[in-house]
Write a structure and sequence with these properties.
By secondary structure, the protein is mostly helical. Helices cover 57% and strands 7% of the residues. It is built from five helices and four strands.
């Protein structure tokens, strides 16, 4: 799996694109194609199951895109399928066993 280094990542642009354009901030701003794909799949599945899970995944994805872009701005190298927001990671891990997590664990 490829690692991503993008010190020019913009957290606001990543969050807005992820929220308004089908999770695309993960791919375009953060350079995480695999994460984009599986976040989108999880959102679609959540929407088909019931609208609320899809909406929750959608919001969590925008938060994760923002936090990941912040880490990239600080010069961190991040895996292509590495999640920063733990709850989104736990959800996507159900559909993608290769997902990884690095961030602040929730209490």
């Amino acid at each position: 799996m490829a690692d991503v280094t993008k010190p020019d990542a913009n957290p606001i642009a990543a969050a807005l694109l992820s929220f308004f354009v089908f999770e695309i901030g993960h791919m375009v701003i953060n350079g995480q194609q695999r994460k984009f794909l599986f976040s989108l799949v999880a959102r679609i599945i959540g929407t088909f199951l019931c609208c609320i899970p899809g909406l929750v995944i959608h919001v969590l994805s925008a938060i994760d895109a923002y936090q990941t872009a912040e880490r990239l701005q600080k010069g961190e190298t991040i895996g292509e399928n590495e999640y920063t927001y733990e709850l989104l990671y736990k959800i996507v891990k159900l559909v993608d066993s290769t997902a990884t997590f690095k961030g602040k664990p929730s209490a």
